[in-house]
Amino acid sequence: MTTWTNDELTRIEHAEELQLAPARSDGTPRTPVPIWVVRDGDDLYVRSFRGSAGAWYRAARASHEGRIRCGGVDKDVTLIKVTDAGVNDRIDAAYRTKYGRYGARYIDPMVASRDTTLKLAPR
Questions:
Q1: Tell me, what CATH number does 64's domain have?
Q2: Name one Pfam family in it (predicted).
């Protein structure tokens, strides 16, 4: 299994957002969308601001694959659904810490959409 390098983790962690292109059913990438990303330990996570209704999220859940571009990192990823409450609690805190300056208007929907948390695993 491939893992993130320390350099990749740092670059992505410090970026404001990443571009995620979920794969279509034929494996070709969809149009990339900007998404907030947070780090927890040696793992990276994203959530859908629009919850499960988000088009990119529906595509990501169908294919479980995508491509990211962020901070000079361009990589194929596997998108893994996160259901662990403890991990989600840490991701909530990470969103509040990293993006809290945007206020409740943006943070509250990200925390409320914890059922859309996806771990980005490099391929």
A1: 2.30.110.10
A2: DUF2255
